[in-house]
Amino acid sequence: MPRARSWFPNPLSPKRTNNGKKAEMLEQWDQRRELSKKFDSEMTEELERCLDETLLQMFDGAECLSLTGRMLGEASVAQRVAEAVRKNLRLKKLQLDNNRIDDSAMMELADAMCGHGTLQSLDLDYNYISDKGAAAIAKVLVQEDVGLREIHLRYNRIGKAGAFVLAKALWRNKSLESLSLHGNTQVGASGGAEFAKALAANTHLKGLSLYDCRILDAGAEQLARGLKRNHALKHLVLTMCGICDRGAEELATMLTKNQILQGLHLDDNFIGDPGAAAIAKSLEQNDTLTDLRLNDNQLSKEVYLYFANALEANDTIQKLGLSSVDEADDDQSQEAMKSMRESLASRRAAKQSERRRGQRRHEAERTAPQSAEPAGIVQRILGAFGAAPAEPEVPSTNTWSPDNLDEDTTDTWNPDDLDSIVEEEVEWFKPIIDPSDPFDAAPRKKESLMAI
Kind and range of the H or E element at 350? Predict the structure, then answer.
């Protein structure tokens, strides 16, 4: 069989080109190679220059810095950034997303953050942080002078052991208000169960995202039980977690007892009509939930009847997501769908008008002239004797105060044991197999730790 002719001739083949043509093409290849090397070196120098300028800003005391996409995963670069963070005591917000930060670099940064009391926001999305890196973050969270309020760990490599140490840190932490583990698919049901235990004791966390963490029904049930005792969490994201009707029914039971949660996202799961009916029924006894999302589930047109009846008894729901539901074709379902949409639209309009009235009232109070009030009789008497009048008590701006737990949830866990917990084999992290869950119907191969 004749050999297929190449579209581009090989410059090293003497049969296709003469010596002069071959030398010319080799010269062109060398020129392109040199240009490529020059471009790479210029890009590296540019990144180094930008990094040096940013580090100088950090040394100068900047409060908000973005280091997105600067390739800080190398040990030498991570040490320089850690030293800059350690010296800047005014830094409040630090963005380190998409930097190829691995566990060793995260340990360097965590050591610098341990004594940093002013840092409030930390963005570590799209990095290579795994369980040991999560343990380093947990050590930061258990410090007494930590001031972190939000941590973003989306699309890293955190697994069950990393979720375990982060959940244990929430037992002691009193500053963190938002935690996102979006896209860490190895957290699993056991990781969700550990966060459930932490929520039963934590009184400060207000937002938790377990988007695509695959906690399944077992993890959802444990979270629901933990939220029955929680008095702080306001927003919970369980999108793409493999939750079926059993987990939805347990969450519905939680909604009848929890009067703090305001947002619950259950999009893109496997919830059917029984689970949706249980959630709709629970809304009749709930007066705090304002945002409920059930988009892209296995729902039929009957859910319009369930939620139309629920909205007659519930007047707090303002956003209700039911996309991908079959369009109502009979008169009863169409009437229920129309009633539900009109009710939600009127509630949103009322909320917007109330917000505008509040903004106008605040603007009027801000621009109004400040008139001095006449001093009272007590102040005049104190002034006559030369005594300084007492300062009026200024009300606290922080009006949120979660209730204390009835039971003592003091933990005897030692944060110094984090490294040993991650390194050793933990038998209780074996996956929970449930044939009714789609993610457990067939064994899954362990995902490779490929670069994002």
Answer: helix 331-367
Cβ-based burial of 113 (10 A; exposed 0-12, middle 13-18, buried ≥19): buried
DSSP 161-227: HHHHHHHHHHHH-SS--EEE-TT-TT-HHHHHHHHHHHHHH-SS--EEE-TT---HHHHHHHHHHHH
Which residues partner with 151 through β-bridges? 122, 179
The candidate with the shortest Cα–Cα distance to 138, out of 105, 163, 117, is: 163
225-237 in b/e burial notation, b at 16+ Cβ within 10 A? bbbbbbbbbbebb
Closest CA to 374 of 366, 365, 383: 383
In eight-state DSSP terms, residue 70 is: S
CB 88 within 8 A of CB 62: yes
- DSSP-derived 3-state class of residue 331: helix
SS3 334: helix
The neighbour count for residue 441, using CB atoms within 10 Å, is 11
Given the structure tokens 């409060």, which residue do they identify? 63
φ, ψ of residue 66 to 5 degrees: the values are -115, 120
406 CB-side CA count, 13 A? 2
Q: Find tokens 């993890």 and name the residue.
A: 219
Q: Which amino acid is at 29?
A: W
Residue identified by tokens 């993610």 is: 439
Tens digit of each residue's pLDDT (9 = 90 or more) over 237-290: 999 999 999 999 999 999 999 999 999 999 999 999 999 999 999 999 999 999
Distances (CA, A) of 257 to 262, 293, 313: 13, 19, 16
Q: Is the alpha carbon torsion for 147, 150, 154, 159 positive or negative? A: positive
Exposed/middle/buried for residue 370 (C-beta within 10 Å: 0-12, 13-18, 19+):
exposed
Which positions ≥6 away from 169 have C-beta within 8 Å? 137, 138, 139, 141, 142, 415
Tens digit of pLDDT for each residue in 161-212?
999 999 999 999 999 999 999 999 999 999 999 999 999 999 999 999 999 9
Tokens for 414, please give them: 């030692």
Q: Largest Cα–Cα distance of the chain, in whole Å? A: 117
DSSP 234: -
